[in-house]
Amino acid sequence: MNQMVDLVIFGGTGDLSTRKLLPALYQLHRHGLAAQLQRIIATGRSEMSSDAFREAAKTSLRQVLDPSQWDESIWQGFQDCLYYVKLEASNETDYQQLKALLDQAQAPVRLFYLATLPSLYGSICQHLQRAAAVSKSSRVVLEKPLGHDLASCRSINEQVAAVFNEDSTFRIDHYLGKETVQNLFAVRFGNPLLHPVWKNSFIDNVQITVAEDIGVEGRGSYYAQTGALRDMVQNHLLQVLSIVAMEPPASLNPADIRDEKMKVLRCLETIDASNVKARTVRGRYDAGAVGGQAVKGFLEEAEYKDAKATETFVALKATINNWRWAGVPFYLRTGKRLSRRYSEIVLEFKKQPFSLFANDPNELTNKLVIRLQPDETISLHTLNKKPGLTRSLRLQPVELHLTDDPNSESQSYDAYERLLLDAINGDQTLFMRRDEVETAWRWIDSIIAAWEETAMPITPYNSGTMGPSAATALTARDNRSWYE
Ligand SMILES: NC(=O)c1ccc[n+]([C@@H]2O[C@H](COP(=O)([O-])OP(=O)(O)OC[C@H]3O[C@@H](n4cnc5c(N)ncnc54)[C@H](OP(=O)(O)O)[C@@H]3O)[C@@H](O)[C@H]2O)c1
């Protein structure tokens, strides 16, 4: 039987909580999936009563949710679970107030969700322990970014580990909560048709694109100290890469899946000063137009003196040195103010040895296209006969869709709903283990050190394009091109 859970959100008044966590919790409640969730206790620094917090939550939920999802009677039930406690992360007395509220109901499981500054994670955990608010069955959820390099990530992990053991620590990467990422397990390991071709003898290259059309949007100062490599590649892109490339796990248990993802990360060939110029591209958006609107360049937006040293776009060629993937480039790219918002994984199969067909200079290839955003779909791009009475047999591309209607109710949940539900149930499968995150940082740190050592330039690109031309050259040098 599932145990009752009290969820405490540190940063309960922040953007993430308002836009993602509370709406996801409301949806779980609406679908009857969070019966064991006893209370949701939001914390923030302002003085506020629980009633005032409920009013604010109602207003923001009504703005975020589709009107069809709003139900006053559901809200009444949901608001009864909501509480607010004023808490300044460094104030001992505030933790005593929180502890007193927690003790009132004595839920067997306390789930502490840290949706606030990562620099506070260690101190929050220590204070919780000092206030005797943590028991063996307590869990902690950590939001990204976990540090800005390996050393800072280790430091956070160590401080958290002094209070919570690894089995109770849930590191979020919301990409892992996407239906299509989980569907990758089903597609890869459920289909005897695909399993034999998922390797270097059949796959020519893999591409992972996470493209955003927005700029830094008021986060200029944070972003200027982070950049695209740390902000997106270290977590989302490497997590997706490790799932695409992992070996079949011994079981679907969290430990077995995470062991296999970890092996992939360990096999990533190091990018250092010897190969960084051939393997990576850094870009920064200039002014331009996105969706017909004129937009400013990054340097005009980022109020930070060292913004010139920050990339808003990165493309790179990763290689995985193991038997399955030797010789297969994994091209990764991500950036801001690109022509459109989408995230996609493309596995491009090798070409035929030669072509029999009149209109095919052997350029048309089979591809498996896994779309994560804005819609979540998987399609197999194949070729068949162009219909008609022409004398020569001609090919045309066709797409086989392997997913349900993306608008169907079964697919239309947010990644945070999945991840919150798993954290409530204590399932770590879709969360990152400490060694995964640290290994990813080690790989990223080497690239950053190589950029510094070689004074790697940042190439400007116009907003509304797909990044600098050097990114096109990255694949073109290998006689390949980005799938767009
Ligand atoms: N926003 C997103 O879409 C998003 C996505 C992925 C990850 N994240 C991560 O999630 C975390 C929160 O992001 P956010 O965008 O929600 O930030 P935010 O809007 O700035 O909110 C920060 C929250 O932390 C609280 N807080 C700040 N300093 C505090 C302190 N000293 N003691 C106690 N509480 C304190 C704030 O309380 P007050 O309101 O009372 O000041 C607020 O509730 C960050 O680690 C961020 O990187 C955010």
UniProtKB/TrEMBL annotation:
Its EC number is 1.1.1.49. Catalyzes the oxidation of glucose 6-phosphate to 6-phosphogluconolactone. The gene is zwf. Residues 186-482 form the Glucose-6-phosphate dehydrogenase C-terminal domain. InterPro entries: G6P_DH, G6P_DH_AS, G6P_DH_C, G6P_DH_NAD-bd, NAD(P)-bd_dom_sf. One of its GO terms (biological process) is pentose-phosphate shunt, oxidative branch. One of its GO terms (cellular component) is cytosol. Residues 8-183 form the Glucose-6-phosphate dehydrogenase NAD-binding domain. One of its GO terms (molecular function) is glucose-6-phosphate dehydrogenase activity. This is Glucose-6-phosphate 1-dehydrogenase. The keyword Oxidoreductase applies. It catalyses: D-glucose 6-phosphate + NADP(+) = 6-phospho-D-glucono-1,5-lactone + NADPH + H(+). Keywords: Carbohydrate metabolism, Glucose metabolism, NADP, Oxidoreductase.
